[in-house]
Amino acid sequence: MSGPKQPIKSRGFRISLMALAISTCTQVWAAETQPEVVEVIGQAAQLEKALEEQRQSSSIKSVVHADAIGQLPDDNAAEALQRVPGLSVERDQGEGRFVRVRGLGSDLNSVTINGTLVPAPEDDRRAVALDVLPSELVQSLSVVKTLTPDMDANSLGGTIEVESLSGFDHDELFYSLNAEGSYDDNTSQTSPKVSGSFSNRFSLGDGIDNFAVAAAVSWQDRDFGSDNVETGGAWDFDNGAALEEIAQRRYDITRERSGAGLNFDYRPDEDTEVYLRTLYSRFKDDEVRQASIVEFADPQQAGQIGEAEAVRELKAREDTQEVKSLVLGGKRRMGDWTLSAQGGYSQASEKSPEGIANAAFVGNTGDIDAGFSDTRKPQLNIGDSFYDPASYTLEEVEWEKQTTTDTERNIRIDLTRDFYVNNMPSQLQFGGKASRRKKDNDLDVWIYEDFADQGFTDEQLNMTNFTSGDVDSGLGRFGPGASPEAVRNLIGGLDRDSFYAEEESRINDFDINEDINAGYIMNTLDIDALRIIAGVRYESTKLDARGTGLTDGVFEQSNTTNGYHHWLPGLHAIYQLNADTQIRAAWTNSVVRPTFGQLFPGFVLDGDEAEFGNPELDPLEARNFDLGIEHYMGRAGAVSAFVFYKDIENFIYTADVAGTGDYVGFDEAFTSVNGDKAEVYGLELAYSQKFNWLPSPWNGLLLNANSTFTRSKARIDQFDQDLGAQRGRTISLPGQSDVTGNLTLGWENDKLSLRLSSNYKSDYLDEVGDVLDERYDYQVDDQLFIDFSASYFLTESLQVFFEAQNLTDESYYVYTGSRRFNAQYEEYGPTYKVGLTLSQF
Fold first, then answer.
1. Which of 233, 391, 457, 761 could form a cystine bridge with 737, CB 3.0-4.6 A?
2. What is the distance between the alpha carbons of residues 559 and 838, in angstroms, rounded to a whole number?
3. In terms of Cα–Cα distance, which of 478, 561, 484, 550 is closest to 515?
């Protein structure tokens, strides 16, 4: 929770609250002449609550709020957040997943649930995939873009705060039951979803409605898929943009998402409150990926025909991600003092039971003639033998299981005192926090090969014995797919111990412990129309990373410790120009620790080649400056403009350090390194309005628009062994889009609600392919998604709804250097939903 626990109000701030109260009274009076439903549900009500919270915040903040029937406007937390200023999402298989703030990559942000940090399920990331959280479990989502000293300082773009439903969010009994079916255009599959939420207040002892219970459950089983063609960036630009290989892939996925939350609040008197927040979410993918691959004997250009080898591959694995969160806390007011305490436990895990990581069927007819056309979405020109399963023989099967666990435990105490300085309201707040985080990964790999030595004949290994029929792809003729069950049956009778891959298994196992101790002090002072918040935060970090290295075939332990300290001052100012307009300014400091993939303690040294992580990396440090103005106007109306600047030190990128330090004699030595400086600056604009003063039916119109313009630059360098000197260039920060924008046009009355929304983000640098040659950089192309939703109240408590997502069938496209050269192209198709909601509120 950010800012003072009980905001102090001077004369200027009282005027603001009075204006808000008058506005609210006017809306209540207007409601008496209309059906009551329109005032408590719908798009305008959602936006009104969000704007009110944003207006009262001590930080620059954007909010998405559930409406009275307990619904966020989208399927999961990530997709709900993409509608607010400065935010966009990374999509996986067409579904919103990771959140970017102000164009900056998702690993530079942090996520909390009910005030406690959410760890990351993936083994190499800090970014939290918010698609694991069903929207039904969430009451509100906030993005804090300027941190106050009482907040963890571990975000550059913003801190995403997830708040679950409380029983005190509704005055009386509340429940909402939802059932829907969705249709995926790509797979022609229909999928079910059911959810529900409940809350009520009860009287304990002599109190009245002093105990509240809230619960929510959600379950969805979705079948969907995608079509893909990619080169992996295998272009040789020194030989006229010649291509080395092409892969076509088909994904078929069954995704089961389930979640539950149970929350308790107890307020025995007006000065005391105790709460317990619990949340559990489970996200399971059962994925089958078929691939057909052509490897050219020599790199060739579009339109040429040359010799090539053909391979068909299969992946068939389950992947289950879980997030568990438990928060116990309370608050006690004692005169001018307020004591708050909270303990949190959260765990994220990713488990993949034993499955086929890759099964390779190699062409057994020798080299074939092949070519391609279209460098953006390559199409093969190849003979019929490529599509004949009899042309392939099973050569290798990679069998894997993996478990990743990320656990965070923390406890914090805050003490606040209200007082006056020369008749000016003031508030002093100080406290401390201790957090203990552990990330561990356990990977086991078996590589089955040399099947002839196990007594199998060429006839038994022929793909005709494994085929599952031709694969249906929307990107053209694909050919045969392999049966996962047939592959499992073949290797099931073999002695697995003789195929255990010790190097791949041991090198990827690690344990990383990260201990953070923090303390802060801050003071809020109201000087008439001006509020000033000043303070400083101290954070100390201790890192212990343990893994395994391999030097010329010999295993050795890799144990590294690292520690650092940061003093992080901050200054916020809010000035009320008038009852509806305020100026905000902030100077803050933040520290973003390296991802776990960058801190990876394992290494492989093989002759004159090396690849390793870097647990000794310094964290990214940033000084952040924000200035802006907000003006609030009428029903769900606001306009705002903010400029921001971030001065960053120690940003991190991947480089080849061969020829330097301990790697003077190496040809290749890839690792993560700290850069010197980087800069980010931008402009954020937002406008929203309910046009309720227009004549009917135009008084139901609602417009919500925002856009963010961001620029960044960072210097990367690498030792050039040919020149014997450092060389480098300037890049944008990876993951940073120059332009992000949202436009939503809505209309509603007491029965019907319509919404057409669009979400845009411009292209961005995904990965530096070669520090010394920008032609090999991976860029993600711009994307524009358009969605439509409609709902209608059949009765006061029964609502029918329809949704259409990705109406324009937007694709995901990654290119190498120039838009002409494919690295990855993927398309998903639109999804349509219809359902019913029964509610009591």
1. 761
2. 56
3. 561
Distance in angstroms (rounded) separating the CA atoms of residues 156 and 104: 8
Q: What's residue 41's pLDDT?
A: 56
Q: What distance lies between CA 822 and its chain's CA centroid?
A: 25
C-alpha–C-alpha distance, residues 536 and 155, integer Å = 16
Q: Are 197 and 170 in contact (CB under 8 A)?
A: no
Q: Which of 151-155, 384-388, 718-722 has the lowest mean pLDDT?
A: 718-722
Q: CA separation (Å) from 593 to 540, 604, 636, 651?
A: 12, 24, 38, 10
| pLDDT, tens digit, 9 for 90 and up, residues 674-723 | 998 999 999 999 999 999 999 999 999 999 999 999 999 999 999 888 88
Give the dihedral sign, CA 229/235/237/239. Answer: negative
Q: How many other CB atoms sit within 10 Å of the CB of residue 697? A: 10
Distance CA 666, CA 604 (A): 13
For the chain, percent of residues with pLDDT exceeding 70: 94
CA distance from start to end of the chain: 27
Strand 530-551 vs strand 603-606: parallel, antiparallel, or unpaired? parallel
Architecture of 11-840 per CATH?
Answer: Beta Barrel (2.40)
Q: At what angle do helices 11-31 and 43-56 cross, to 10 degrees?
A: 170
Tokens representing residue 669 in the block: 């030595």
Closest CA to 463 of 358, 291, 355, 312: 312
The reply to whether the predicted model has a pTM over 0.70 is yes
* Distance in angstroms (rounded) separating the CA atoms of residues 512 and 510: 7
Which tokens go with 525? 């002072």
CA distances from 574 to 157, 275, 521, 552, 585 (A): 21, 31, 19, 61, 7
CA dist 101 and 624 (Å) reads 14
- With residues binned 3-state (H G I as helix, E B as strand, rest as coil), the percentages for the chain, rounded to 5, are 10, 60, 25
Rounded Cα–Cα distance for residues 635 and 343 (Å):
39
Cα–Cα distance, 152 to 155 (Å, whole number): 8
CB atoms within 10 A of CB 664: 12
Residue 21 binned pLDDT confidence (cut-offs 50, 70, 90): very low
Helix (H) or strand (E) holding 690: strand 677-690
Q: How far apart, in whole angstroms, are the C-alpha atoms of residue 831 and residue 806?
A: 7
DSSP tag of 593 = P
Collect all residues with Cβ–Cβ distance below 8 Å to 493 and sequence separation of at least 6. Answer: none
In eight-state DSSP terms, residue 29 is H
Average pLDDT score, the chain: 90
**pLDDT at position 840:** 87
d(CA 274, CA 329): 6
pLDDT digits (tens, 9 = 90+) for 559-588: 999 999 999 999 999 999 999 999 999 999
pLDDT, position 35: 32
**Domain spans in the chain, listed from the N-terminal domain onward:** 11-840
pLDDT at 149 over 70: yes
C-beta separation of 189 from 183 below 8 A: yes
Largest pairwise CA distance in the chain: 93
Specify the pLDDT at position 90.
82
Helix (H) or strand (E) holding 30, with range, is: helix 11-31
